[in-house]
Amino acid sequence: MSTETFSFKSEAKQLLNLMIHSLYSTKDIFLRELISNASDALDKLRFESLTDKSILPEGDLKVQVYTLGGEGSQDSNGSRRLVISDNGIGMSREEMINNLGTIAQSGTREFISKLSESKENQSGEAVESLIGQFGVGFYSSFIVAEKVVVHSRKAGSDEAWCWTSEGDGEFTLEASDKETAGTEITLFLRDSDEDDALDDFTDEWTLRNTIKRYSDFVQYPIELEVKKSKPVVAKEGEDDEEVKNKEPEPYWEWEQANSMKAIWKRSPDEVSDEEYNEFYKHISKAWDEPADRFRFKVEGAIEFTGLLFVPSSAPQNLHYRDSKHGLQLYANRVMIKENCEEILPTWLRFMKGVVESPDISLNVSRELLQQDRHIKTIKKSVTNKTLKHLKSILKDNREDYTKVWETFGEVLKESVADWEQGKKIQPLFLFKSSKEEGYTTLDEYIERMGEDQDKIYYITGESVEAIERSPHLEAFKSKDIEVIYMDQPIDEWMMGSFFEYESKSLQSISQGDVELGSEEERQAAEEERKAAQEEAGDLLGHIKGSLDEYIKEVRLSNRLTDSPACLVSENGGMTPQMERMMKQMGQEIPSSKRILELNPKHELFTKLKDLFEADQESPKLNHFAHLVYGQALIAEGSPLTEPVAFNQALISLMAQ
Ligand code: ADP
What we know:
This protein is of the alpha+beta class. Helix content is 37%, strand content 18%. The chain folds into three domains: 4-231 and 239-256, Histidine kinase-like ATPase, C-terminal domain (Heat Shock Protein 90, 2-Layer Sandwich); 268-398, Ribosomal Protein S5, domain 2, CATH 3.30.230.80; 431-656, Rossmann fold (3-Layer(aba) Sandwich), CATH 3.40.50. The longest helix has 24 residues, at 373-396. The strands form four sheets. The chain has a nine-stranded mixed beta sheet. It has a five-stranded mixed beta sheet with strand order 10-11-14-12-13, sandwiched between helices. It is elongated, with a radius of gyration of 36 Å. A hairpin with a 6-residue loop joins strand 4 (145-153) and strand 5 (160-165). It is built from 21 helices and 22 strands. The structure holds adenosine-5'-diphosphate (ADP). Adenosine-5'-diphosphate binds next to helix 2 and helix 3.
């Protein structure tokens, strides 16, 4: 029979071009696509065989992968080829024309327009990630092949057809001598190219890994033909030297390359802990066991199942915002996306596991994942389920939860910037505090609050030790008011967006005014302070004059009991730790001046007052001002801003 030539629809041409030229690091997805098609064809055959047993093949339903022309191939003649064959439903002549020559799915058209758009406006990387998120189907063969030949026989049919294309806009059809039902796709491989990240797909290791990566849980065996060698044995009369020089004799064997074990699909009581742990190690490439796991199944408008793990250790790059997400998205056992950031918020990126939904099958939806309505619903639900589970660990096993918090708490704190879902995790935050030995939740803090207390007090600092030395804590300790310790680097940043919990405002004790005690006590204390402040007005003005460069205001304090002085920021102002952090990050910010508060009940203040009354012009006053300021910095763990002046003041006072 003659050969007929056909043209691709124009979109197909466009897609081919884009695909070949824009994909960089994920070229291997073509194999996932072809194996997924083969697996669909096997599904279809199995379904049809329910009514017509005669179409079943003699052996098992399976996918076979082998190579030709390569080093490890059984037939090493000719150009390098990769063959993917299945004994599934196959295609008729009409189906080959329609399925392999046109783009039926409307989603594909949309994909192409998105792709062209992003190619013009964005980097190559963006284009690649776009393709990576789609199933690009059969056409992806041309990413690695310069020519593709498809032999297919529809199950139950008495004819077979051969489709050939070089991806140049045309394909040909002719009769094929394929004897059994199913489809056999031969890819004439482009030269492998390290610079272009094009692997050699005749290489056993590459094939095995690619199959494992994307198609491990496909429910049919994927057999890979591998080269083995027979052990060399000595024949009679051969000496050792001769045996050593003998080439081992090769033979080829089919080896199953996928595990087929989709354990998230098996009934929970059928799966052992060991199997779960094994699976966890496989998908997360971890060496240790997970801290915890949970499963869920959602039925309704959108169906999906999940198997999620809480890891017991953090990966090294966890704190980079662009560190990888740990969930894999599957549709019908075929992986759609590894490190899928569309189904959990970034502050849960450390979670590992699998989410599978038949509703986002490769064949059904080809819209962008993050814009997909189903994906949005899934994300919300997976997030809620994860939080619910973490909550149950906190409730049932505080010790375990504490470990999770110590490992991932800093990531969870990033949630304060998530206006959509962030609030839900706040009851799970743990903090050290001035009253609790271990950690406290904010709810537990609120429960311990006294009747007059209406705010949640906290203090930030570089470490618990530094915080506990802070003069700011004194009044709170003496009044027995609990203060939350924020000692992690992220806390400064976090408190920039975390203002309220359970309608109680969060108040830094080193910022603004503090008003402790009952309404009457507050008023009395404030009046007393004001009177003292007025009385000492000239002295305070004098000290302010000495420290004008560093200090915004000098005032008397209500928050000190033992220390002579402390520095406070205005409400909403930047704390010195934050300033230092930002400077370390290379940001240029002006140092903001703080308020120096003096303890009117301290002996030092009385001495200063005496000195001032005796001689307002005494140079000692200036020295004392610098000393008091310096010691307030030291007390809170900050470096001296004016070490020279501090030193001179110290020497001169010591000399007297
Ligand atoms: P999709 O799989 O998303 O439909 P593809 O471009 O991968 O898109 O494939 C187009 C169609 O070609 C499939 O829907 C299927 O009908 C047919 N097809 C592809 N591969 C095979 C195969 N191995 N066996 C039978 N039919 C196939």
